[in-house]
Write a structure and sequence with these properties.
This protein is mainly α. The protein is built from twelve helices and no strands. Keywords: Cell membrane, Hydrolase, Membrane, Metal-binding, Metalloprotease, Protease, Transmembrane, Transmembrane helix, Zinc.
């Protein structure tokens, strides 16, 4: 009886997560209706809360897939509650991704949940566990871009369109960066089970520095330009133009001067 109760509590959605969802819902409504006196504040809170929700779902996808693949220790760690405070590295999973959105408007891959890989048998299962997280970002991006590629924007306020466009940009960048086959990122986790033991041992020491390497490379102006050109091209195929993402980021950074061009296009 006690065991069953514990198992149920291990999977009960956390009030912390529900609170974040509530913030996203209320500020999304405020952005839609224009209720907020400063629309930028509402957009900031809406996008930030929705971004944190997506980070929680990203980690939940890893954990849930691991549970069904054989790691029954996942529930006891609290990963199935969607509580970001339960993550192995709350700083990496939540704080840093939010800071990078605020500073640079890029979806930083977060992490992580600790998975006991020794409990899981089969290379396909290991690959699927790693892929589950970024696939969640892909799904989130599809939801955010759906009104654009479905031509369903009639009656949607401009501020809400801009916020969705910026949120879509974050999801797309997070998915692409996460899928890079670089040690420490999910993309490498997808291919790692298929590599020889020798190669895995040689690469293992570099895993903690994979993300730093990615940002060092993105710091190069030429690489940064090409990366965001690719992101813009992908978003355009989904019906989102550069103006929408630019104005979304401009609104999000409400503490900076508002571009009058975005105000005219509202």
């Amino acid at each position: 009886m006690t065991t069953a109760t514990n198992r149920h509590s291990d999977r009960r959605i956390s009030p912390v997560f529900l609170g974040i969802v509530a913030v996203a819902a209320v500020t999304g409504w405020a952005t839609w209706t224009g209720f907020a006196e400063q629309p930028g504040v509402a957009v900031f809170l809406f996008v930030t809360a929705a971004w944190i929700v997506s980070l929680c779902l990203h980690e939940y996808a890893h954990a849930r897939t691991a549970l069904h693949s054989g790691d029954i220790s996942i529930g006891a760690k609290g990963y199935l509650t969607l509580n970001p405070l339960k993550y192995t590295h709350a700083l990496l999973s939540i704080v840093l991704p939010v800071l990078f959105v605020i500073m640079g408007g890029i979806g930083l891959p977060g992490g992580a949940v600790f998975i006991e890989r020794g409990r899981i048998q089969g290379r396909w299962k290991h690959s699927l566990i790693s892929a589950a997280g970024p696939l969640t970002n892909v799904l989130f991006a599809v939801v955010c871009t759906a009104p654009f590629w479905l031509d369903a924007l009639d009656g949607v306020p401009a501020d809400f369109q801009f916020a969705l466009a910026f949120l879509a940009l974050l999801q797309v960048t997070a998915a692409l960066l996460n899928f890079l086959p670089i040690p420490g990122l999910d993309g490498y986790g997808v291919i790692e089970p298929w590599l020889s033991y020798k190669i895995r041992r040689q690469v293992e020491p570099f895993a903690p520095f994979g993300l730093l390497f990615v940002f060092a490379v993105l710091w190069i102006p030429e690489v940064n330009g090409q990366f965001f050109d690719a992101i813009d091209a992908l978003l355009r195929t989904l019906g989102i133009d550069e103006i929408s993402t630019y104005c979304g980021q401009n609104l999000y950074r409400f503490w900076t001067e508002t571009d009058q061009y975005c105000s005219i296009n509202q």
